[in-house]
Specification:
Keywords: Actin-binding, Cytoplasm, Cytoskeleton, Repeat. Pfam families: Cofilin_ADF (PF00241). Residues 1-135, 186-323 form the ADF-H domain. The strands form 2 sheets. The chain has a 6-stranded mixed beta sheet with strand order 1-3-2-4-5-6, sandwiched between helices. It has 2 domains: 8-143, Severin (3-Layer(aba) Sandwich), CATH 3.40.20.10; 190-314, 3-Layer(aba) Sandwich (Severin). It is an alpha/beta fold. The protein is elongated. Helix 3 (92-109) runs antiparallel to helix 5. It has helices spanning 11-18, 48-62, 92-109, 127-145, 149-161, 178-184, 193-200, 236-242, 273-294, 316-338, and strands spanning 8-9, 24-30, 36-44, 67-72, 80-85, 113-119, 190-191, 209-216, 221-228, 250-257, 260-266, 300-307. Strand 5 (80-85), helix 3 (92-109) and strand 6 form a beta-alpha-beta unit.
Length: 351
């Protein structure tokens, strides 16, 4: 079973779950290649309090990496509890992967899972805090049952996308310094200097100019790929394809006529599902950020094109914009030469 993340439960994890002894904690991680959920460590103790003390110590050694934790009670017949531990200061890619895979593991482990809680801080991983969370979550259980699996995944991604409204004990790599926050406070990832310079150089006289960029998930940056001038509409697909050697999702902004820009998001077939998820979740906030950034330059993003493979790009929308510009210039030129003004014929009157 899988969800949007495309990550599955390994056979090794299923076996570890079934054989989990009483008063134990099974720590679960996403494999390094982001394909499977695997057991990381099993901790066993005599009491629940000491179990959580050992659990906290182990998670602290790997902080701020996210993890899932299954807790078995003193009575082996009781349903096991589930903890989703996703620190606020973990990398955004990891947070999204763990948030979107949560339902996979819960559904795959079946009816053996009982109470479910979510923690984001180390000081929450205590026996007392765990008991209080279970008691408070019982009151909200009915609300959670009203959401479908996809709605829960989307809710998790949306919560992660709005991190700017929350406090942090440690800065994310993507948050940068105070100056970067002021410039990019409405987006998840900041721009690298080259991309910032490229957009600072956009003007209302630009035409046939193309800026191509993508997300470096490891560095948590939006990076410039290339800036090209004199790119006609008929050359657009070829240039975009040439700038995407690894055939991954890609963003670009194209000045198809002076003062008018088209935002293009392409997601080639075969792209990793986790990349699709990150690019799709980031797109709207990125467009809004660019609109605000470019407003002072007298240009507007008035087209938003989204395709799978680049050969699906509908160029007629961009060609029509250039045609309108050309017709406007020709009309102005004709008017200045003859002194005459030609009006568009009126349609038939309404009956």
């Amino acid at each position: 079973m899988s969800t949007q993340s495309g990550i599955t439960v390994s056979q090794e994890l299923n076996e570890s779950f079934r054989s989990l002894p009483p008063t134990s904690a099974l720590i679960i991680k996403i494999s390094p290649d982001s394909t499977e959920l695997i057991p990381d460590k099993t901790i066993t103790s005599n009491t629940s309090a000491s179990l959580f003390a050992d659990l906290n110590s182990h998670i602290s050694s790997q902080f701020p990496d996210p993890a899932y934790i299954v807790i078995s009670s003193d009575d082996q017949d009781d349903a096991k509890s589930f903890i989703s531990f996703i620190p606020d200061v973990a990398k955004l890619r990891s947070k999204m992967l763990y948030a979107s895979t949560r339902n996979t593991i819960i559904n795959s482990l079946g009816s053996g899972i009982g109470p479910k809680v979510a923690f984001s801080e180390l000081d929450e991983l205590t026996w007392d805090s765990f008991q209080k969370s279970i008691a408070s979550d019982d009151n909200a259980a009915d609300v959670g049952l009203l959401l479908t699996e996809d709605e829960k995944i989307l809710q998790g991604i949306n919560n992660l996308s709005s991190f700017g409204n929350h406090g942090y004990k440690k800065k994310l790599a993507s948050m940068g310094g105070e100056e970067d926050l002021a410039k990019n406070q409405d987006i998840l990832y900041k721009f690298d200097p080259e991309l910032t310079a490229a957009f600072d150089g956009v003007s209302s006289t630009d035409a046939d100019k193309l800026i191509v960029f993508n997300i470096d998930l490891a560095a948590e940056l939006v990076k410039l790929q290339t800036v090209e001038s004199g790119v006609g509409v008929n050359q657009l697909v070829k240039v975009l394809d040439g700038a995407n050697a690894i055939k991954s999702p890609q963003y670009s902004v194209y000045a198809y006529r002076p003062g008018s820009l088209a935002f293009i998001y392409s997601c080639p077939s075969g792209s990793a599902v986790k990349d699709r998820m990150v690019y799709a979740a980031f797109k709207n906030s990125l467009i809004n950020h660019l609109k605000g950034k470019l407003a002072g330059a007298g240009v507007a993003i008035d087209k938003n094109l989204e395709v799978g493979d680049l050969d699906e790009l509908e160029l007629s929308e961009l060609q029509s914009g250039q045609q309108e510009e050309a017709e406007s210039v020709d009309s102005s030129s004709s008017s200045s030469k003859t002194g005459l003004k030609f009006n568009k014929p009126k349609g038939p009157r309404r009956r």
